[in-house]
Design goal:
By secondary structure, the chain is an alpha+beta fold. Helices cover about 40% and strands about 20% of the residues. α3 (about 100-120) packs antiparallel against α4 and α3 (about 100-120) runs antiparallel to α5 (about 140-160).
């Protein structure tokens, strides 16, 4: 029945912590006591703060704008919604588009002929010229340009307030003929 201060990394399921105005909520949980205005736009995109009271759920990385609430921890650390969103965004970096994959398969097929051509040209041309033949592999362009193009489109979308889970969503957009929205607020 006393308040102590601990690092948020030590929060575990079942703990109850206090969140005051101006503080970021460090874990997902349910409000046990209190009332607060919570800015959830980082997770939901909603610009209007949510009024939260006992029994309501709150999420890590949201900001208490006013009030004081006591929250029972349900998920902390890597189990929180914010952490899962962060993981999804980080996984997006490793995604390869279908064009990239097809290009890499084709580049793998021409690798051996390029090695042979580079080796055969070595006695007739300088070492740097033979090396230039090896570096001229189209696989390098596919690996480099495919990633840059996908990243460029993701950046353009994010500047317009659109979060794209991964590059595969952009690829599938070409074949999309119907879009269904589940609510009138923030589109997910």
């Amino acid at each position: 029945d006393i308040e102590i201060e601990i690092p948020f990394e030590e929060l575990k399921r079942g703990d109850v912590f206090a969140a005051n105005a101006g503080e970021v909520i460090p874990a997902d949980g349910t409000i046990k006591e209190g009332f607060a205005s919570v800015d959830q736009h980082i997770l939901t995109g909603e610009s209007v703060p949510a009024e939260k009271k006992a029994g309501d759920r709150v999420f890590a990385m949201t900001l208490v704008l006013s009030g004081r609430i006591y929250i029972k921890v349900e998920k902390s650390g890597n189990d929180t919604v914010a952490s899962k969103i962060s993981k999804t965004l980080n996984d997006m970096i490793d995604f390869k588009t279908g064009i990239q994959l097809r290009g890499e398969k084709w580049a793998d097929k021409v690798a051996v002929p390029l090695l042979i051509l580079g080796g055969l040209s070595l006695p007739f041309l300088s070492f740097s010229s033979a090396l230039a033949i090896l570096y001229a592999s189209p696989g390098n362009a596919f690996r480099f340009c495919g990633s840059l193009l996908t990243l460029n489109h993701l950046i353009i979308a994010s500047r317009r307030g659109i979060l794209v889970k991964d590059g595969s969503a952009l690829e599938q957009l070409v074949d999309t003929d119907t879009v269904i929205f589940d609510k009138t607020g923030t589109l997910t």
